[in-house]
Specification:
This protein is an alpha/beta fold and 148 residues long. It is built from 6 helices and 5 strands; from the N terminus they run βαβααβαβαβα. It has a 5-stranded parallel β-sheet, with helices on both faces.
């Protein structure tokens, strides 16, 4: 069984594409909470309200970090997606954390991010452009089979 952590952008269906494409492969997928409101508000919902937005966000970030650290630590492969619309500073942090732990890292990004993400890409073992390429990498890792 391959444990794969899917980190990064939450506004498109890239995770669903990878999971569907990997159907039949012996892979367990894990990810952060992708419900944006739940992710933002988990800290105050669990630990109590904060009148200051900084501390509201800080509590959420800390609670989310527990899930993220466990997911990355338990993963065999970490896939980090950088989307087109939003800057995902958290995704860059996750990629760095995975690299520091020596995890196999796959970055999923569009070519227009190549320059901005050159240091992240240098730590990755693969830079994919499409979710289908990630699926083919995972298939190859598990079976040795090439696409086609």
């Amino acid at each position: 069984m391959l444990n794969v952590y899917l980190s990064g952008e939450i506004h498109t269906d890239w995770r669903d594409q990878i999971i569907a494409g990997a159907d039949g492969l012996d892979i367990a997928f894990h990810s952060p909470v992708t419900d944006h409101a739940a992710s933002d508000d988990c800290g105050v919902a669990i630990l109590g309200e904060e009148p200051n937005k900084y501390w509201h966000d800080h509590k959420g970030a800390m609670v989310n970090a527990i899930r993220t650290r466990k997911g990355i630590a338990d993963a065999d492969v970490v896939v980090v997606r950088f989307g087109e619309k939003y800057r995902q500073w958290n995704a860059a942090f996750d990629a760095g954390y995975a690299a520091a732990l020596g995890k196999s890292l796959i970055v999923l990004q569009q070519p227009d991010h190549d320059h901005a993400l050159k240091e992240v890409d240098a730590a990755a073992l693969a830079v994919a452009r499409e979710p289908a390429q990630v699926v083919e990498i995972l298939r190859y890792v598990l079976t040795g089979a090439l696409p086609g």
